[in-house]
Amino acid sequence: MSAIDITAFPKDFAWGAATAAYQIEGGWNMDGRGPSIWDTFCHEGGRVFGDNTGDVACNSYQLWEEDLKCIQQLGLSHYRLSVSWSRILPNGTTNHINPKGVEYYNKVIDSLIASGVTPMITLWHMDLPQALQDCGGWCSAEIADIFESYASFCFKNFGDRVKLWITLNEPYVCAMLGYEDGIFAPGIKDPGLSVYVAGHNMLRAHAKAWHAYNTHFRPSQGGQVSLALYSDRAEPLTAKDAAATERYKEFTLDWFACPVFCTGDYPESMRSRIENRSLELGYKQGSRLPHFSKDEPSPLGTADFFALNYYTSRKVKDLSENTELSFVGDQGAEGVIDPSWPICGVHWLAVYPEGLRKLLKYIKDTYTSVPIYITENGFSQMGPVQIEDVDRSQFYEDTLQQVGKAISQDGVNVKGYFAWSLLDNFEWNDGFNVRFGLFHVDFSSSELKRTLYRSGRDYAALIAKHRSQSKPKSI
Ligand code: NOJ
């Protein structure tokens, strides 16, 4: 990674990698864990590539010490992991606590800290307890209070040691793929309706959890709380598509970022577009895109840092003629891949590292003076495994070069970078067919052996170089 100007990264830059509970832990029914929506979705069959499941995955529940060795081998300063909600609260509520689950996360957190690694914890990374889905999941209004109790439980039990929290991971993706397209759990296909209700309740839940932290825990614990937002970088396909590109951005990043960072409400033009189309389609005003109640804590200002998950860029094409009842119909725009961008592994991931620099600048200019953490970014492999994954290594080099330029030339306050992912893992509806790890995992053997990829070795070398240059010079 010689092309990277390492001096662009501040001394205390967070070098991390990320994972999520359902994707790595396995132990799906061990020691009192309750089922999550992904257990149900996978067990139904016909939903996931090869009918793979997260029943065992990387077995991090039993092989945590192996993961810790991987973290140490990379020399990470930070590790982002998620808590499996139903492992600690099997039915999702604090009425039933599973001490073994709490013990597991205490062990993980303590051993990270003892190794000098700062944990960043995500409270919900797609794996809602099934018991809560049975009551309506993210479409039920009650879920916001239930999430607040769960979050407070975690702050209370782990917050003496955990100072960086993510409430929700990628609400956009979860609402879209789980409630609009139905290709992710809980598999609901309800175009143009549930997606907005689910997204709204996610924001309410996040806001309540942030306010709970702010009032009850921040004074003694002094940590920071945010939510991880997915965004691609959007550019018009042709000059005629400029307005469509604005709409595309509004319906992706701004949908969640505007209420939290700008106004406390959805972007005005998103609201008016959905309301006008609702009337045309026979729905009453306000019925599809809900309103935030004045009686509840506002989402405005509920992020102590900006957490960005960036993977890819899109060219945007106008679809304003689309009259169907759907999210895409409301958006009146469609994102397509520029043929000059190489695809890595999965069909949706076109490599365009410059997009990240442009997006970081956009976020700085549009939203925020709070620091930014890139909480996910990565490159996947499909097909025969290449331990000498030179393409992925080049991808990390190109991407981090862009991050360095964003910091040194555009003045963006980027505090950290988390590669997705520490390990090859269960890639949702692509199962184990798609590999994002810095470590290869041999899913064909019961030992689930972890082997460092070339990209992992190069990432570790970069971290070591930064660390050695950041050390005070001895006299
Ligand atoms: C973002 C999600 O947070 C993560 O769970 C997923 O594996 C990666 N994207 C790659 O698709």
TrEMBL record:
Keywords: Glycosidase, Hydrolase
Gene3D superfamilies hit by this protein: Glycosidases
UniProt GO BP: carbohydrate metabolic process; glycosylceramide catabolic process
Active-site residues, record numbering mapped to chain: 376 (nucleophile)
PROSITE patterns reported for this sequence: GLYCOSYL_HYDROL_F1_1, GLYCOSYL_HYDROL_F1_2
EC class of the enzyme, as a word: hydrolase
Family recorded in the similarity comment: Belongs to the glycosyl hydrolase 1 family.
Name the record gives this protein: Cytosolic beta-glucosidase
Lineage, opening ranks: Eukaryota, Metazoa, Chordata, Craniata, Vertebrata
